[in-house]
Amino acid sequence: VTEHIIDPVHFRDTLNSHLGSAFSVEPILTQSAWWRPHNKSEDIESLYFVGAGTHPGAGLPGVMSSGTIASRMIAHDAVASAQ
Q1: 1: pLDDT strictly greater than 80
Q2: Whether the Cβ atoms of residue 11 and residue 24 lie closer than 8 Å to each other
Q3: Inter-residue contact 56 to 65 (CB < 8 Å)
Q4: pTM recorded for the entire structure
């Protein structure tokens, strides 16, 4: 019989996750979906964000959607800057 425990300390130390958070920001209403950090920086030009901590949310579907959203933003911005 063996036992392996994964806890916030494991996430923090092994996965370099801020404060051991498994899902980035806290999964409460005011930090979910639209209220999560958006996929494009408002402060730094051409800086885009992808992952569980960004819009639309955590989990594989959320992360995949985040990548799709960011890639579309990048393509849109590239076309706009070329004009």
Answers
A1: yes
A2: no
A3: yes
A4: 0.70
